[in-house]
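Our preliminary data section would be incomplete without showing what the modeling component actually yields. Below, a chain of 165 amino acids is followed by its predicted structure, encoded as tokens that our downstream tools consume directly.
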Amino acid sequence: MQNTKFFLIPVLLFFISACASSPESYQGLKHPQTNSVNVSFQEQTISDTCSAFAHLLMHSKGQSTGQDIATAMRTEAMSKGANLLLIGMAREIADEELESNIFDYYGPKYSYTFNKTWLGWKFGFADWNSGDRLVGVGSDAWGNSAIRFQNSLLIQAVLLHCEDE
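Predicted structure:
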């Protein structure tokens, strides 16, 4: 009986620590991983062959450059199978000092044809509304290593899979 107790304690501790320390894994829709992803900042440029399969807000780490943000976002998109990434607006989060980027996903439950069903940037309002001023992360800042954002940013994005990309 004594040996059983000593055996159960380490096993129980292992399971508790595994639950407490494991990062939440992505549970949304995916496509096979891609090797490249195009980026768009304008909704009207999205092809009729594109399906949206993930809505997300990226919380960038502090002191990120435009290149850091572009690389992180592209890597995340390719890992989920996107071949097109639509970037929306960005807000500064002055009192947040992140050590790493965080990607929060907001559905959808099913892929949808972007040009027929897109209803706009209507996800993640609780997080979005907690941000501060709007910040430009458009084509001038995207991928630019000379531009450094002092604070963390909250960036809207949609992952798309397009047949003609």
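The radius of gyration is 19 Å. Helices lie at 2-21, 66-80, 114-117, 125-128. Preliminary results of this kind motivate Aim 1 of the renewal.
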